[in-house]
């Protein structure tokens, strides 16, 4: 981009316009202690106010009171609120998508895609609001019926990360609301503005719901801005029976232990170190495109980003040079421009972590291609990089860790079983792929002795999951599942009910107790 283009951008003014047009009060954007920045230019967009611990206590207490009311509203009527939220998101997709790009640095189609993901989960949750059903189970006793019922759980805490600043909230909130829960959200301190925008759209949906006769109690949803202190309030409050937290494994280790200490539930969606295997029969054109998107897309800042690539020795020389070409020529720059594919890293810390990982990779014998800082004219305070491809012989050191940046470690293999073993030999277990046209290899990879991840794909990359499936992973990824399938069950409590409609009292297991 030329300097003149840079100067024609006025992101702070544009951000204020978008936020006020969505209904955010201007005073929420100035005078606060926390600078909200754009990674696109590195500039400060707004000064937002952190909530205090006392604010958090009050918001959670109100959400608990609201839950006691909301749970009484029939689920399909709760679904109506989520339907209206989906309508607000549809009507404001362009504005919110743009704000996601400005605040998180996503390219245009990914900013819009993030909002689409929110719309999709709203529609899923509306349907779900008529499908919160349990089983009827055969009982051993005559004239008895055994069944299970799913009841609302309570305040659902949501802690989300900067890289999907609003979609991950929507996965949790849309489902939690139809399940009869109230929701308190602590977004990443790096992305408070998209959270304020989303909260404003939710307020509009709530207002319309009430105008149309819906019964939504005050305090049903809450937003807590700030750092660790407010997050801790959510994790420690006995009125919060469930916290869904997305972020680093280090964060999850602390949050998970605190929740376990008070017997609250956790849905943890933590680090990924996602890999793909490229077998000799793979369609290499398709593989090239899939790997490029999964490894370089979103500047490597998805929890599902591809970080390790095992390439069969027979196709290594056909694939890897082409990949390097793609790395050398991919369009890096202002994510707000239509033709850009790689936007910025979120901040300096991400850049430093990337450089540390690359130097550790060199120490382990890795040959590093790319990875250097790219200066975009006029954006000297932003951190753009060329994605890095690292050819490395061993899976050690940085290859075993998640570095939240575009680094792809490429390793050759000969034997599929050995490759699967290496694939699984990292602490994380989120997402994975195999590229093959061999049915046995594909089925083996998705079978019990294949990938040990929560997501295992064939001939598509590990990132970019649809909302219809359950999303989450194993091992240090935390074990939680969000979004589609039956992930809703984690947001409700299950009661098993046995009803005796006869006149005698047979005891289970043949026990006799005649008084
Ligand atoms: C995340 O990076 O925290 O599957 C979530 C994907 C997206 C969600 C990623 N739908 O890549």
UniProtKB/TrEMBL annotation:
Q: What is its EC number?
A: 1.2.1.3
Q: Where is the Aldehyde dehydrogenase domain?
A: 36-494
Listed name of the protein: aldehyde dehydrogenase (NAD(+))
Judging by the UniProt lineage, the source's domain of life is Bacteria
The answer to whether UniProt assigns keyword rRNA-binding to this entry is no
Top class in the EC scheme:
oxidoreductase
Which keywords does the record carry? NAD, Oxidoreductase
Q: Which GO terms describe its molecular function?
A: aldehyde dehydrogenase (NAD+) activity
Q: Does the keyword Chaperone apply?
A: no
Q: Pfam families in the record, alphabetically?
A: Aldedh
Q: Which SUPFAM superfamilies match?
A: ALDH-like
Q: Which family does it belong to?
A: Belongs to the aldehyde dehydrogenase family.
Q: Which residues form the active site?
A: 269
Assembly and oligomerization: Homotetramer.
